[in-house]
């Protein structure tokens, strides 16, 4: 596409680690110009969160996962000259994104009150662990602890009574990533609102709020019934059979979503009597009689290989799938057809492999075309083009450690 949806939008990104950078990478993929502000000689903490490292480079895989399409500018906001540079940049930006502790930017005059006075229509998005107010507002928040506090780990893992039972975190930073997506969504809404009203806004996003917000049906299971949902391993609280089963040579995810699918499964599995059993006629009954049904299915699933089950069940429209390792994921023909692994030119490594943005417009993935930047890669360019600083002025700032 010639112009991406957010072409012309400029974001000053003061965030680091994951939630904020995930948000700004989403905006960059959609066409926004993202100026990533980093501390001179140090940069985003995740640059050092390795191994693994990109070959022929000092960039960590973690950093590379969330910083595509940005410009890296090194400015020390702790120095008055650095604050002055950022104030001038803010005047030319539509959005400021930050994830400092509550009140942490006031001493630099980079808080919402200070910056909205410079640019009244500014959209200012703050990401914190617990929000801008409340008894926990001053606490630092990290994804792992938020998964625990927000209830996700009480739902994830096997029951305490089972071998290996106990709470388990999700294998990626679930709360951070969802917060980044919510933040991007909120910024888009604020941009639309500003277009209608001419007004800026302050967006307050908290990891804990997001974690509770995405508990979805499990939250409503509790709020509706008053019963605390237990950990069910790979089983589903509201659908049966909907879980992983051991096969002859591995595992199969069986996701029977309705009664007709259950009848077709029973026909393929050679157990038609289960489909007509009064205990299992409807999904609600199967949930009530989960403890009776699942032990009957376990030996049946072990009679065939995973591939045999996949072929048989897919032929009759019963949802199922394998449990892939990441090498199998990126070798999967559907993943390859959708081009979810991409490569971009990198100034040190030559090429860097990245994961595509899953959003497609007019059958084209929305991906920024530049790799995650080296530390300070665009400092000179941005200070020259946007602030009009010449080489001598920048040299003096560099001597002082401002840039």
TrEMBL record:
It comes from the Bacteria. Gene3D superfamilies: Crotonobetainyl-coa:carnitine coa-transferase, domain 1, formyl-coa transferase, domain 3. InterPro entries: CoA-transferase_III_domain, CoA-Trfase_fam_III, CoA-Trfase_III_dom3_sf, CoA-Trfase_III_dom_1_sf. One of its GO terms (molecular function) is CoA-transferase activity. Keywords: Transferase. This is Crotonobetainyl-CoA:carnitine CoA-transferase CaiB.
């Amino acid at each position: 596409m010639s112009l991406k949806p957010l072409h012309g939008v400029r974001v000053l990104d003061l965030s680091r680690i994951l939630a904020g950078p995930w948000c700004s990478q989403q905006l960059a993929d959609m066409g926004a110009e993202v100026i990533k502000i980093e501390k001179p000689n140090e940069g985003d903490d995740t640059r050092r969160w390795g191994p693994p490292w990109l070959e022929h480079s000092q960039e960590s895989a973690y950093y590379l996962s969330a910083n595509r399409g940005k410009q890296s500018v090194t400015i020390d906001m702790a120095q008055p000259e650095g604050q002055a540079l950022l104030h001038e940049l803010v005047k030319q930006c539509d959005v400021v994104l930050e994830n400092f502790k509550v009140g942490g930017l006031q001493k630099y005059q980079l808080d919402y009150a200070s910056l909205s006075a410079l640019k009244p229509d500014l959209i200012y998005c703050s990401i914190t662990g617990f929000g801008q107010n409340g008894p926990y507002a001053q606490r630092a928040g990290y994804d792992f602890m938020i998964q625990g506090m927000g209830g996700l780990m009480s739902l994830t893992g096997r029951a305490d009574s089972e071998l290996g039972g106990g709470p388990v975190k999700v294998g990626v930073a679930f709360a951070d990533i969802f917060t980044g997506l919510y933040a991007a969504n909120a910024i888009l809404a604020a941009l639309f609102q500003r277009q209608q009203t001419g007004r800026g806004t302050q967006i307050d996003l908290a990891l804990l709020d997001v974690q509770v917000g995405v508990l979805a049906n499990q939250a409503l299971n509790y709020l509706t019934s008053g019963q605390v949902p237990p950990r069910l391993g790979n089983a589903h609280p509201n659908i049966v059979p909907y879980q992983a089963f051991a096969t002859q040579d591995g595992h199969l995810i069986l996701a029977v979503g309705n009664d007709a699918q259950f009848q077709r499964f029973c026909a393929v599995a050679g157990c038609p009597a289960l489909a007509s059993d009064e205990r299992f006629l409807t999904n609600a009954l199967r949930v009530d009689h989960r403890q009776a049904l699942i032990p009957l299915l376990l030996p049946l699933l072990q009679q065939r290989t995973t591939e045999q089950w996949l072929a048989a069940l897919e032929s009759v429209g019963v949802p199922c799938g394998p449990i892939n390792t990441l090498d199998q994921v990126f070798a999967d023909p559907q993943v390859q057809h959708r081009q979810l692994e991409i490569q971009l030119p990198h100034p040190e490594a030559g090429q860097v492999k990245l994961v595509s943005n899953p959003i497609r417009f007019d059958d084209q993935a929305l991906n920024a075309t530049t790799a995650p930047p080296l530390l300070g890669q665009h400092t000179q360019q941005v200070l020259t083009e946007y602030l009009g600083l010449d080489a001598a002025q920048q040299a003096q700032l560099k001597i002082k450690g401002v840039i």
